[in-house]
């Protein structure tokens, strides 16, 4: 399991450096989701990222039509960094007691849930991953990823 988590950390550690971060992240995560040879956990992580990116783009078009591509790119990069940090912490906490892992996971989950960007009323859809006990990535889709990432970094630095 530890080797799998380390491999996943390396996989999610690839930062998109292109000008259009959103498009690069979407393209790379879609490729993993569609690759039948990719590790199951990698596909699950990429599926979350793909769904989060799609949700972000659709909601921005609906609720924030005047927002910029730069804003979308910043949110996409922050979401990717948030997930990467979570995977990194899972690897670091791997040998710690389960209650510490659960506490760290809950901190990430709650931060994503408590920092909505759109205040979407469709909680069934936005909290689908959050409510799924089977998913490794249990975050809200309606999240201000930049704000959530800043908050989670402060919480981690306090511990």
Describe the structure in your own words.
It contains eight helices and no strands. It has 159 residues and is an all-alpha fold. It is globular, with a radius of gyration of 15 Å. Residues 1-18 have low confidence and may be disordered.
What's the helix and strand layout?
Elements: H1 2-12, H2 21-34, H3 40-63, H4 69-92, H5 98-113, H6 123-126, H7 128-131, H8 145-158
Helix pairs in contact: 1-4, 2-3, 2-4, 3-4, 4-8, 5-8
Salient structural properties:
159 residues, mainly alpha
Structure in a nutshell:
The protein is an all-alpha fold. Helix content is 70%, strand content 0%. It has helices spanning 2-12, 21-34, 40-63, 69-92, 98-113, 123-126, 128-131, 145-158.
What is the succession of H and E elements? HHHHHHHH
Largest sheet: none
Question: Low-confidence stretches at least 5 residues in length (pLDDT < 50)?
Answer: 1-18
Number of helices: 8
* Tertiary shape: globular
What integer is the average pLDDT?
89
CA-CA gap between termini: 25 Å
């Amino acid at each position: 399991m530890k080797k799998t988590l380390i491999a996943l950390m390396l996989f999610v550690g690839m930062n998109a450096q292109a000008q259009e971060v959103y498009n690069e992240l979407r393209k790379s995560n879609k490729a993993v989701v569609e690759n039948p040879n990719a590790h199951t956990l990698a596909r699950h992580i990429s599926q979350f990222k793909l769904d989060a990116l799609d949700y972000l783009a659709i909601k921005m078009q609906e609720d924030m039509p005047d927002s910029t591509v730069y804003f979308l790119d910043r949110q996409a990069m922050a979401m990717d960094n948030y997930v990467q940090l979570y995977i990194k912490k899972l690897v670091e906490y791997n040998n710690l007691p389960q209650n510490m892992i659960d506490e760290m996971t809950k901190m990430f989950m709650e931060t994503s849930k408590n920092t909505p960007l759109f205040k979407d009323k469709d909680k069934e859809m936005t909290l689908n991953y959050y409510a799924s006990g089977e998913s490794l990535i249990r975050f809200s889709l309606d999240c201000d990823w930049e704000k959530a990432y800043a908050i989670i970094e402060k919480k981690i630095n306090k511990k």
